[in-house]
Amino acid sequence: MKDTFAATAISRTTRTECSAVELELADAEGRITTVRVTADIALSLAQTLKEFAESSSCFGATPTKMPKTFSVGTGQFDDVVLIRFEDDVPYALGADEAMELGEALIDQSESLQRRPLRALQ
Fold this sequence. Notes:
This protein is of the alpha+beta class. Helix content is 31%, strand content 32%. The chain has two domains: 53 residues, no CATH class; 45 residues, no CATH class.
């Protein structure tokens, strides 16, 4: 059985080739281990680590995400509607789900517009 390496610091990073990077990690006792990560794994790992950090209880309440950009399109090979926020991976919805989402967005937007303005206390 392998022991878990509890990294406490990144001691060095090196780009080994066009599609890989080596991360040298140190634990609390100064032991070092090196991990080689390809570009596609690095992209997935970056998203996973970002989500972990944002949801970690160490940081308290997580604010609501408010994307600056979005786009909507259709799949090239599948009959789906694609929704992408900023540069994230797009969400794929079937036609019925997309219609339901669109109607829900319109309903909520109209409800929000009818709300009285809030006064700051």
